[in-house]
Amino acid sequence: MDSKRKCISCGKLKPTEELIKITREHKSGDIVIKPNSKTFGRSAYLCYNQECINMAFKKNKLNKMLRTNTNIDKEVLLGYTRLTNKI
Ligand SMILES: [Zn+2]
Fold first, then answer.
1. How far is the CA of 47 from the centre of ligand 1 (A)?
2. What is the 29 CA–ligand 1 centroid distance (Å)?
3. Strand spans (E) along the chain
4. How far apart are CA 76 and CA 5, in angstroms?
5. CA of 11 to the centre of ligand 1 (A)
6. What is the pLDDT along the chain (87 residues), one digit of tens a residue?
7. How remote is the CA of residue 12 from the centroid of ligand 1, in Å?
8. Alpha helices in 19-66 (DSSP H)
């Protein structure tokens, strides 16, 4: 569990458990926020903070990373920042 991933907004390398994983499911094309280990597809990672989430949407980075035009629910992502104490 020591694998590290890069936040698409701030570019910092962090352990995966400190990042929100967002996956575009390979077959259905559905966007899954915090997918389980069985979800297979292209993924992007974001810090648990509003700044990184806002930036990812402002620059449309999330959609570009996931190569999708699906509307990703920003409020759902921001909800995770309220549930966690991590900054
Ligand atoms: Zn970040």
1. 4
2. 24
3. 4-6, 13-15, 19-25, 31-33, 41-47
4. 21
5. 6
6. 568 999 999 999 999 999 999 999 999 999 999 999 889 999 999 999 999 999 999 989 999 999 999 899 999 999 988 876 554
7. 6
8. 50-58, 61-66
Give the gyration radius of the chain's Cα atoms. Answer: 12
Residue 13's DSSP bridge partners are 6
How many whole angstroms from 71 Cα to the centroid of ligand 1? 20
Distance 66 CA to ligand 1 centre (A): 16
Taking residue 81's Cβ as centre, other Cβ atoms within 10 Å add up to: 19
Strands 13-15 and 19-25, bridge-based pairing:
unpaired
One-letter amino acid of 45: Y
Give the right CATH number for 4-79 from 3.40.980.10, 1.10.940.10, 3.40.50.1980, 3.30.1230.10: 3.30.1230.10
